[in-house]
Amino acid sequence: MLDCRRLALACVLLLISPISRLAAQDQRASLLKADRLAAALSSDSGFAIVARRSFDSAGVLLWPQAPVLVGAGQVRPFLSSQKQPIRLTWQPLGLDLSSDSTLGVTWGVAWLAQQAPVTPTGLGRYISVWRRVGDAWSVAALVFIGISAGSSTAVPAGVPLSRPAGRSGDDMAPFIAADQAFARLARDSGAAVAFRTWADEDAVIFGGGGLLIRGREAIGQAVAGPERWDWHPVIAGGARKGDLGWTVGEAIIRSTEAEPSYSKYLTVWKRRGGTSQFIIDGGNGRPRSP
What we know:
The protein has 290 residues and is of the alpha+beta class. The chain folds into two domains: 27-145, Nuclear Transport Factor 2, Chain: A, CATH 3.10.450; 173-285, Nuclear Transport Factor 2, Chain: A (Roll). The chain is 32% helix and 37% strand. The protein has helices spanning 2-45, 47-54, 72-80, 173-189, 191-198, 216-223; strands spanning 55-62, 69-70, 88-97, 103-112, 124-133, 136-145, 199-206, 212-214, 228-238, 244-254, 261-272, 275-285. The strands form two sheets. Strands 2-1-6-5-4-3 form a six-stranded mixed β-sheet, with helices on one face. The longest helix has 44 residues, at 2-45.
């Protein structure tokens, strides 16, 4: 009797496995479609329309030279304050998905749609984190890197120039804690050691001019130097199962030879067996903190 039950269970598992794989493939295709539709809408009608239609109500936007913008109440007024519609577009080069398909990330090249023809030096980068509810994907966090929109960065009333560190006691504690430990190691041992330690084997960052840098050693070499890196996460999110998550934070890079550089960042994390490592990281400038 026991052997029969074991055989039945094995048969069920064999059936579930390909079904699960097909479901994951369908969700990857639907995420890619959502990303491409948003890019086309931004190119045709302006990025502000994308923010209204594709952003989560609590979505986070990291716009070049602006503060961290959180939620529709900050994102929409900021984009509405621009002197003319901003028509950006982008093309995904990479995609990742949580095991339960409730969170996904796309990243690739971005450029101003009104700039033609586009040259390699005119290409920026983007990282977009998407949250799925039912069959619909919405943007949870988005950063553009190396894009010069030539637009107003006046800060709407009520938007703070700087935010306090995120709490490690909330549901996203593993990702907040990982980011905080990452930052501590950078302060104590330097950016090169910290990035090598916390990077996934195939991690990607964007260097100067949006240069794509892949792998622990290459990333470590890219950030090596005498500068002092200080940062802290301010907000985070993740998949229901907790194997994929993201943090947004604020950073200051100090040099003895130049003024401090104020920036903000989006880091995407994978969690395996209780250990978190980042798979992609990118950021842009923000106003000087008071």
